[in-house]
Amino acid sequence: MSGLRVTDGNRLAELTAPDGSGLLGDLRALLEQLGSGDAAVERPRPAMPASFAALRQFLDTYKREILIKHEWPAIYRAYNHGARNECNELIAFDESIARERGDAPFADASRRIGQFQLKRLAPLRGERVLTRYMAAVDEGRAHGWHTLVYGLTLAVYSLPARQGLMHYAQQILRGYLESAAHSFSVSEDDTRTALEELLADLPRELEKVLKPV
Asked: Which of 100, 110, 136, 163 could be joined to 141 by an S-S link, Cβ 3.0–4.6 Å?
C-alpha cells in the first residue's frame, strides 16, 4: 500500500455521499432492481412491494439470501486480496463470480455500479493492485463487480473490514427501507423498529464471514 492509513474509520462516511451519489447510495438502485422483479428492464421507478410488510419481507430475504451468503463473503475476500496486493487472485475471483453468478438478476447492475466506482478511484492509481485491477476491467479480463470494488476500496484506504462490512449492510438496508417507507403510511418508530429487527442478527452472522482466508 502507498500510505493511505486510517485508524478511526471515519472514511467510511465518504462511501455514502450526502446526495446519495457514493457507492452505497448507488447500490440502492441494485436493490430497487431486485424489488422490481425485472432487472433486465430499465425503469425510472421500479415496482415497489405492495405493502410495508412485503417490503420488510423482501429486505429480510435480500439480507439472508444475497447479503450474508454472497455479498459479504465477496467483499471480505476482495478486501484480503487487496490488502495483500494479490491482483492475480482478485482477477481470478472476479472471473469465478462471472461463472457462478453472471446470469443473476442483478449482475448487470453490479458490473455497472462497480465499474462506475472504479473510475472514481482513478486518482489512486499509485496503488498497484488497484491499477492492475482497473486495467483488467478496461481490457475485458475482469468485470468490476460492485462487491469486489467495495472490498478493494476498504483495503486501499486501510479501513477495518469488520466496520466496513457492517457499514455496507446498515447503509443499504437503512437507505432503502427509509426511502421506500415514504410510499406507505408508516411512522418513523415503525421504520426504526423494522431496521433494528433487520440488523439484529448481523453481528452474529458477520462472525461467520470473518474467518481466516
From this structure: 136
Q: Check which CATH number belongs to the domain holding 95 and give it.
A: 1.10.4190
Specify if 7 maps to a domain.
no
Looking at residue 28, its pLDDT comes to 56
What is the residue-wise DSSP string for 133-168?
Answer: HHHHHHTTS----HHHHHHHHHHHTT--HHHHHHHH
Confidence label for 122 from pLDDT (cuts 50, 70 and 90): confident
Q: Is residue 10 part of a domain?
A: no
Higher pLDDT, 45 or 66: 66
58 phi-psi bin (left φ>0, alpha ψ -120 to 50, beta other):
alpha
Average pLDDT of the chain, as a whole number: 80
- Whether residue 145 lies inside any domain: the answer is yes
Which range marks the domain in which residue 165 is found? Answer: 21-30+59-209
pLDDT at 125: 67
Q: CA 6, CA 35: separation in Å to the nearest integer?
A: 36
Instruction: Decide if 11 is inside a domain.
Output: no
Q: What percent of the chain has pLDDT over 90?
A: 47
| Domain count for the chain | 1
**pLDDT in the model for residue 35:** 45
